[in-house]
Amino acid sequence: MERFREVRGTKDLRPGEIERWHYLEKIVRTVMDRYGYLEIRTPMFESTELFSRSIGSDTDIVQKEMYTFPDRKGRSLTLRPEGTASVARSYLQHNMGRGKAVTKLYYMGPMFRYERPQKGRFRQFHQFGTEAIGSPAAWYDTETISVFYEILDAAGLGPLTVRLGSVGDPGCRPAYTSLLKEYLRARSDELCGNCKERMEKNPLRVLDCKNRSCGGAIESAPSLLDHLCEPCTAHLGEVRSTLEKGGIPFELDRSLVRGLDYYSRTVFEIHHDELGAQSALGGGGRYDGLLEDLGGPPTPGVGFSAGMERIITVAESLEIEWDGGDEPMIYVAPVEETAAGDVFPLVRRLRRRWKTEGVREVRNLKTVLKRASRAGAGIVLLLGAGGALTVKRMDTGDETGVSVDHLEEEVEDLRKAIAARRSEERDS
């Protein structure tokens, strides 16, 4: 009988690998807390119309990539392909902006798109991101860029550069769209089949094409940055000025667009400076018209999203050491048969504060240390006859006798010493 396997485009996260995810998640939560963002968890499926209306019915995501299905009552539902639309829906439904100038939220979880699986890209993938809803101020564009930059920097993913652009607003984008469409029609023979369709329905999507055959036409296309209205120009200028003062490196990208229709004004991506063509680690932008399109009052917003598989893959390719934190595990084992019955109560006591494993079987010291090493232990606690306790450091081999009454203090001192040594080794 053939064994079941992962569905194509999905991936099990197993022990030995999941620890890197935990490490990244911890960084995300720590930085979000510092910036005052609160976590929100939305359902993994929503009404299909939510995504078609927000993302754009002419986008590849809606036309080709969404997992859409009818429920038992014939209602069309879709597994969420991105996070912003769901957060916006929740914000409106639960009146989350009541009494607040700005509501700052973050999310982290699985998304679903029917794309061609490749390294770092799956059909079930994971994103984290933020949404700052309620203010049109450029301050929040810069804060959004900063929180993402801070996460990547804390994860060791430098050197980084922000690529900054603008897609204008309803006041200036229509005139540019007409100009771009005229330009693309004149060079339609250089465009791929998809872009010939996009050219008529939504010409800005052509600028986001990754097909090499379209490269020449896209590179020579007029830039929206040269056709921004005065308010959009001023908004972009304020974002640039604040980034400069904050010491966040950026460059102006004259052809930058994002793959979703709800963006307005600021758009950005953050790139690793040494990854070449595949250097993007995530991005986002402002979406001042989205909540109104979803039936709410005019409400500005800005946010970003980043693929966790992508970031973890990049960290591995750059050989960045993520050890999941400095938490040396404790391994408890008896060295005398009379002490075997004391293992469980001692393990339970230690587990109230620390990660601890224990075994009841008596083995020789060499076997105990080998098993402790395989388990990843930093500290081994050996139980002898008459309640004798010996604490052994795995990194130095030092042994110390300790009394039961002072066990927690001794273990805590050893844990701090081991963590300090690991930190010094990483920094050297």
Q: Can you put this structure into words, describing what you see?
A:
With 428 residues, the protein is of the alpha+beta class. The protein has 2 domains: 18-172 and 228-317, Bira Bifunctional Protein, Domain 2 (BirA Bifunctional Protein, domain 2), CATH 3.30.930; 329-427, Rossmann fold (3-Layer(aba) Sandwich), CATH 3.40.50.800. The chain has 14 helices and 16 strands. It has helices at 18-35, 48-55, 60-65, 84-93, 138-154, 173-186, 193-201, 215-219, 230-246, 290-293, 308-317, 343-351, 365-374, 407-427; strands at residues 38-39, 45-47, 68-70, 76-79, 103-112, 124-133, 160-166, 250-252, 266-272, 280-286, 301-307, 329-334, 356-358, 377-383, 389-393, 399-402. The strands form 3 sheets. The protein has an 8-stranded mixed beta sheet with strand order 1-5-6-11-10-9-7-8, with helices on both faces. A 5-stranded mixed beta sheet has the order 13-12-14-15-16, sandwiched between helices. Strand 9 and strand 10 form a beta hairpin. The longest helix has 21 residues, at 407-427. It starts with 17 loop residues before the first helix and ends with a helix. The model has no long low-confidence stretch (mean pLDDT 89).
